[in-house]
Specification:
heterotrimer; A: about 280 residues; mainly alpha; MetI-like fold; 12 helices; about 80% helix; globular; C: about 270 residues
Chain lengths: ~280, ~350, ~270
């Protein structure tokens, strides 16, 4: 029989909508309102760009996010392939490591990176001598952020790989294709949705990221969230902070909405979770 | 044998079901068009038709899962307009049974009784009764997964009947079963329905199923009922070409002056063509008196019968023959005689 | 998957080898924290010169740390309850809603994408606009919002595997829609609900950005204390606390795995 029974939908939406209205939409509207109140609707968009601090931070944030996205995708794809191709016991271990890092506190992981990257820290000891000089620099942020973002690429790509049609793989081989050709014609197209979804998510998340840059980014390496946070923390110029917040919000939400509309990100996430 | 509670209440429980002018418009298409059917109390009716004929939609409307644009359904005189699915007192057996995997068989069957606030003792009794009815008295504690397909269907039936609904709906009841099981289940379903006396409406696209189980068959096409009658009536005296073809192989012959072409048998009614079933025709030796000359064009051995295709006066005919009857099996190209075995013929209304 | 291994053996081997390297990379920060926690030194020195468990005992005896842990747990629990109810209800609702399903799903996933700092700012401003002061209640709501998408995704995925005919069957057999939901749909996704609730608890316990900006002074959650301490002193106490957090994560992960892979019992 065809139709789904649809009663109750309205009632069931009450709790989540109420929560999101109070906890998400309300606050975001408040940020918008504060931004407009401080600088006016037009000023809200243009004022932040007048500040050199903000401009620098914005450019740095974009760069960093792009870099992190690229590295995460490359490493993530390799890890996903490893998960699929490894013998079962090893795949289990690799999975375990991935989930463990996902579950361990973000703060603790970042702290671990601090211990590694700081002068006389672990990495310096291992590498010996001069040290890597990565502490509190923007490039130093990249490994730590890739660490955090990895699951967001690995999971969708893994889901895609699992969905690979074994028959296609066999066909490619039996038709005489070499390894590279098989990869290129069967595997790469199959993982494209996961890679794209992962890259977009990582990029968007990196734009708004706070914790890791707070610990590992130096005074010269501020990202936009840090700039906003500094003003918020000192409770000065909240209006200005709000204006910057609006821009950051537009960038992240805007990208997310575009990606969802044209690339179906939401569906990709759901598929990835199902595989879990 | 001790009379069961079900048997005792049979006479008082059966109700008449009236489908009155159901019309369903959806997105510009007319899915159901003024469907009317009266199912007498205790009767087993089948809605038969190809996919897209509207039979499933009718079932959905009866069960309360779809709203008609206009029209009404009455069970025992009580209208179902605006009544929610859970208050309709209708038992439904879904195509894949929809048994709850997280509950045992017994708890599945008990489920409708929970909604009706039946106390525990009575629940246990009724569940036992229902399981006896479907001849699976010992499976109450088993998991649904451990049952075979045929057993699952019987449990679904038990669950749908345990609360003594006025109407039982069956959605393609035998579709998921393999052939041998299907025939056994046809008899089972019939027996159970007789025993409870519950008015039943089944929906199927399989004409053998419909003919073997029903008291009444309603043939649906493009959202309309095109013929209603007993299985024999719709098979032997189809009203339209469509019905004729849907219910089995049909030889359509034009009717001239109240008689069929080729054989000249009298035909009732004023239409321009009539249907001869393959089993109504007989093949004999060529030049046998009273037969029409024909040439064999195809022979297919089907175990229980031989399916012969012959051409008589440029008209192809399909003839059923019992393999032993003819002596040697006819060959392609052989000349034979064909005749009509006799019996009433009725003209098609739309030819 | 052996097919990939057979179809591209060289690549597979390289990938697996690299994968192990990446796994080590993933474990590195955790592996660094643990030894430091056990060091006897007063400063964050790697590798530790001497070993001792003194930092653990110090932390566990310090009322300030214990209070922070307790506070984190309480707020995380409250936020988890809200998020679980909201996320589960949303997953059920989206199965039933005819129009606007796409928009609703986008909304449900939006908290994952909104920059946490902007959300913190927004919560602060919103409460301020309404005449109040942002405090632990605000924090609880904020964390609930962040955790809801996690629950929603997991329960929605679980529901996708549930035959819609089951709900219709339950209704046709006489049950109202709440009864059908509670007796049929919910039991079939219990594992997803509980598993994601555990994950949500972990996320809320660890949530640091909202906590840092919204905790009133003197009532800090654990991450906030870690943050503040890391900024001020450089003692291995933080490493000790971090190790405890890692331990908690392992326990939670284990619980979650147990819950989601236990075979369904038939009642």
């Amino acid at each position: 029989m065809g139709r789904q029974v649809t009663e109750g939908g309205r009632w069931l939406l009450l709790p989540p909508l109420a929560l999101l209205l109070i906890g998400l939409i309300g606050p975001l509207v408040a940020v918008l309102a504060a931004g407009i109140a401080a600088e006016g609707p037009v000023g809200m968009v243009t004022e932040p760009f007048r500040s050199e601090l903000f401009l620098g931070a914005a450019v740095r944030t974009l760069w960093l996010s792009a870099l992190v996205a690229v590295f995460t995708v490359v490493i993530g794809v390799v890890y996903a392939v490893a998960l699929v191709a490894a013998p079962r016991w090893l795949a289990g271990l690799l999975f375990g490591v991935l989930f463990l890092t996902f579950w361990v506190s973000l703060l603790v992981r970042t702290f671990g990176w601090v211990l590694m990257l700081q002068p006389a820290g672990a990495l310096d000891v291992l590498v010996g001598g001069e040290g890597l000089g990565l502490y509190q620099t923007t490039p130093g942020l990249v490994p730590a952020m890739v660490h955090i973002m990895l699951p967001y690429v690995v999971l969708p790509v893994y889901a895609d790989l699992r969905g690979l049609d074994a028959a296609q793989l066999r066909a490619a081989r039996s038709l005489g294709g070499g390894e590279w050709l098989t990869l290129r014609s069967v595997v790469l197209p199959a993982i494209r949705p996961g890679v794209v979804a992962g890259a977009v998510i990582v990029f968007v998340l990196s734009l708004g990221f706070y914790v890791t840059p707070a610990f590992l980014g130096g005074p010269g390496g501020q990202v936009v969230s840090i700039v906003i946070g500094a003003q918020f923390g000192r409770l000065q110029n909240l209006g200005g902070a709000a204006a910057m917040g609006v821009l950051l919000l537009v960038a992240t939400l805007g990208l997310y909405l575009l990606a969802d509309r044209f690339l179906g990100i939401g569906r990709s996430w759901s598929a990835a979770v199902e595989r879990d | 044998m001790k009379e069961t509670a079900l048997e005792r209440e049979r006479a008082t429980e059966s109700v008449e079901v009236v489908i009155d002018g159901l019309t369903v418009h959806l997105g510009g298409t007319r899915i159901l068009d003024d469907v009317r059917l009266t199912v007498p109390a205790g009767c087993f009716a089948t809605l038969l038709g190809p996919s897209g004929s509207g039979k499933t939609t009718t079932l959905n409307v009866l069960a309360g899962f779809a709203e008609p644009t206009s029209g009404d359904v009455r069970i025992g005189g009580r209208s179902l307009a605006g009544v929610a699915p859970h208050r309709r007192e209708i038992g439904v057996v879904f195509q894949n049974y929809a048994l709850f995997p997280h509950l045992s068989v017994g708890r599945n069957v008990e489920f409708p009784l929970l909604a009706r606030k039946v106390d525990r003792g009575t629940r246990r009794e009724r569940v036992a009764e229902a399981l006896r009815l479907v001849q699976l008295p010992d499976v109450a504690d088993r998991s649904v997964r451990s049952l075979s397909g045929g057993q699952q269907q019987r449990i679904a039936l038990a669950r749908a009947l345990v609360f003594r609904p006025g109407l039982l709906l069956l959605d393609e009841p035998l579709a998921a079963l393999d052939k041998q099981l299907r025939e056994a289940m046809q008899l089972e379903l019939k027996r159970i329905q007789r025993e409870t006396g519950t008015t039943t409406v089944a929906v199927t696209h399989d004409q053998v199923e419909a003919l073997s189980m029903s008291d009444v068959v309603a043939i649906m096409q493009d959202g309309r009922i095109v013929q209603v009658g007993s299985p024999e009536e719709v098979y032997r005296r189809p009203a339209t070409r469509f019905v004729a073809g849907f219910l089995g192989e049909a030889n359509l012959l034009p009717v001239v002056d109240g008689r069929t072409a080729l054989f000249g048998n009298p035909v009732d009614g004023g239409g321009g063509a009539t249907v001869l079933r393959p089993e109504d025709l007989e093949v004999t030796a060529a030049d046998h008196p009273g037969t029409v000359e024909a040439v064999v064009t195809d022979v297919v051995y089907q175990g229980a019968r031989l399916r012969l295709t012959v051409t008589a006066e440029r008209t192809p005919l399909v003839v059923s023959a019992v393999p032993g009857e003819l002596g040697t099996r006819p060959e392609i190209g052989e000349r034979v005689g064909v005749r009509h075995r006799g019996g009433e013929l009725r003209a098609l209304a739309d030819a | 998957m052996t097919d990939l291994r057979r179809a591209a053996p060289r690549t597979s081997r390289i990938a697996v080898a690299l994968g192990v390297v990446v796994a080590l990379f993933l474990l590195a920060p955790l592996a660094v924290v643990l030894p430091v926690a056990f060091s006897a030194d007063s400063f964050l020195v790697f590798p530790p010169q001497q070993w001792s468990t003194r930092w653990f005992t110090e932390v566990l005896a310090d009322p300030a740390w214990l209070e922070a842990i307790g506070l984190s747990a309480r707020i995380a629990a409250g936020a988890t309850v809200l998020a679980t109810v909201a996320g589960t209800a949303a997953a059920f609702a989206l199965r039933r809603v005819r129009r606007g399903r796409r928009a609703l799903r986008t909304l449900m996933l939006a908290p994952l994408v909104v920059p946490q700092l902007v959300l913190a700012l927004g919560l602060y401003l919103a409460v301020d606009d309404l005449g109040g002061r942002a405090g632990l209640g605000t924090l609880l709501v904020g964390q609930a919002v962040l955790a809801t998408p996690v629950v929603y995704l997991a329960v929605a995925a679980g529901l996708a595997g549930v035959d819609p005919a089951l709900t219709r069957a339950a209704r046709s057999l006489g049950h109202t829609w709440p009864s059908a939901l509670l007796r049929v749909e919910l039991p079939l996704v219990v594992r997803s609900v509980v598993g994601s609730a555990v994950l949500a608890f972990g996320l809320c316990f660890d949530e640091s950005v909202l906590a840092y900006y919204l905790s009133p002074p003197g009532r800090e959650t654990l991450p906030t204390r870690i943050w503040l301490d890391a900024g001020q002193s450089a003692s291995p106490a933080i490493a000790a606390v971090s190790s405890l957090v890692i331990g908690l994560a392992v326990v939670l992960l284990g619980v979650s795995v147990l819950v989601t892979t236990r075979r369904k019992r038939v009642r």
